[in-house]
Amino acid sequence: MNTIQRQGSDPSVAHWMISFPVPWPRWLARHRIMQARQVMARNEGFHFAIIAEDLPQRPMVGACSAAFIGDPSRPPELAYWIAPEFQRRGFAQQALKGLLAFMFERDEDLRAIEAAVIQGNDASTQLLLSLGFRYHEDEHASAPLSWNLPRGEQVLLHRYRLWRTDWLRSDWAHISFKQTQN
Question: Second label for 32, Cα 20 to 30 Å away, from 19, 82, 144, 155?
């Protein structure tokens, strides 16, 4: 829990996450973990720590999730972060490949997966495009808590979507989630 609280409180992480206040109080980290467990128990989403298997002490370097949010007719939505000291080392791409393989393997009827990126987060946009996501639409959302803007301020979100057919044509379609666990 301390790692999640520390990483979630980092301003460079929280800046790009809609619902991350800075700093994260310990009770909120505990609450988010409890919520994630409940969501997983109801089969409404999946939440994973990203662990660097090849580094000493196998540290948690971030987290990723795919969850059904709001409208049940929409695809599940990805969310992810990588702690600043581990960014640009391939951890997010590797973790998301495993999560996407898991999602498409477990549900043959899943047609697509979405991700929303706050305008200006070019690294996240490039990551999604590298995984085969395509621009879908724009929408406005409440400004991130970490921005300390007045209530009701909006930011522009770019929504990207990965269709099952595009995943199956990708270089990673052969990845089995079972293989990524070794």
Answer: 155
Strands 60-67 and 45-51: antiparallel
Beta pairing class for 77-82 and 112-118:
parallel
pLDDT tens across 124-147, in order?
A: 999 999 999 999 999 999 888 778
Residue 116's contacts (CB-CB under 8 Å, 6 or more residues apart) are 77, 139, 141, 157, 158, 159, 160
81: Cβ contacts below 8 Å, ≥ 6 apart: 7, 8, 13, 16, 17, 62, 63
- Between 57 and 24, name the one with better pLDDT: 57
Position 55: which residue type?
L
Inter-helix orientation angle 91-106/122-130, to 10°: 50
User: CB–CB of 63/17 below 8 Å?
Assistant: no
Helices within the chain (DSSP H only): 2-9, 11-14, 26-41, 91-106, 122-130, 164-169, 177-180
* Its pTM surpasses 0.85: yes
The domain locations on the chain are 2-180
CATH superfamily of 2-180: Gcn5-related N-acetyltransferase (GNAT) (3.40.630.30)
Spatial distance between the Cα atoms of 122 and 130, rounded to a whole number of angstroms: 12
